[in-house]
Amino acid sequence: MPVNFYDRVWTILERSKHGITIADTLLPQEPTLSDMTRYELTFSHKIEAMLSRISHPEYRQLLVELLSIIATILERNPEISFNGSKIDCDALIKTAFKMYAEEQNIEDLTNLTPFYQLEGQALSTSTATYLTRAIVEFILAGRHFSQVINIFGEQTSREDALATPHSKSKHHRDRTPGRIESKNEESCKIQ
């Protein structure tokens, strides 16, 4: 396992309200987070037990790689959280393989062998590339953002970003283009 792997899975679980599905087994956010601690061996054993159900070591490696990529994305983007849906690792791997299969004109979507053999090839055609694309697609499709960052680099709540300057709400435009301020400062706090 990669260094800090279980700690990173814990981080994913903290930001995934409906849990993580690994090999058709749900790891729920609650009671997992309330019954265990980040560094507890019981948590590590629970993840190991879920991964050990997978008979193909190549697929198990893809799952570890996928979870590591998700953790990296979450570490670098604190505004992302998965509150609308669970993280289905198997579905993400299938999506990644489907992207690869479409690019390579592979018709058999049940045999992942060509996908397993991508390691060691160019970065643009590695499994990490396709897994990352599948994750980003999932994030964008599910709108898993807790805040919106506008084009001027200012952090704004979703409601403020969606308000129009001509709306008859309590919002008015500041002199800074692209920035909306509220007369009620409490409603502008980033959650």
UniProtKB/TrEMBL annotation:
<dbReference type="GO" id="GO:0005886">
    <property type="term" value="C:plasma membrane"/>
</dbReference>
<protein>
    <recommendedName>
        <fullName>Phosphorylase b kinase regulatory subunit</fullName>
    </recommendedName>
</protein>
<feature type="domain" description="Phosphorylase b kinase regulatory subunit alpha/beta C-terminal">
    <location>
        <begin position="2"/>
        <end position="108"/>
    </location>
</feature>
<keyword id="KW-0119">Carbohydrate metabolism</keyword>
<comment type="pathway">
    <text>Glycan biosynthesis; glycogen metabolism.</text>
</comment>
<keyword id="KW-0636">Prenylation</keyword>
<keyword id="KW-0321">Glycogen metabolism</keyword>
<comment type="function">
    <text>Phosphorylase b kinase catalyzes the phosphorylation of serine in certain substrates, including troponin I.</text>
</comment>
<keyword id="KW-1003">Cell membrane</keyword>
<feature type="region of interest" description="Disordered">
    <location>
        <begin position="160"/>
        <end position="191"/>
    </location>
</feature>
<feature type="compositionally biased region" description="Basic and acidic residues">
    <location>
        <begin position="175"/>
        <end position="191"/>
    </location>
</feature>
<dbReference type="GO" id="GO:0005977">
    <property type="term" value="P:glycogen metabolic process"/>
</dbReference>
<keyword id="KW-0112">Calmodulin-binding</keyword>
<dbReference type="InterPro" id="IPR008734">
    <property type="entry name" value="PHK_A/B_su"/>
</dbReference>
<dbReference type="Pfam" id="PF19292">
    <property type="entry name" value="KPBB_C"/>
</dbReference>
<dbReference type="GO" id="GO:0005964">
    <property type="term" value="C:phosphorylase kinase complex"/>
</dbReference>
<keyword id="KW-0449">Lipoprotein</keyword>
<keyword id="KW-0472">Membrane</keyword>
<comment type="similarity">
    <text>Belongs to the phosphorylase b kinase regulatory chain family.</text>
</comment>
<dbReference type="InterPro" id="IPR045583">
    <property type="entry name" value="KPBA/B_C"/>
</dbReference>
<dbReference type="GO" id="GO:0005516">
    <property type="term" value="F:calmodulin binding"/>
</dbReference>
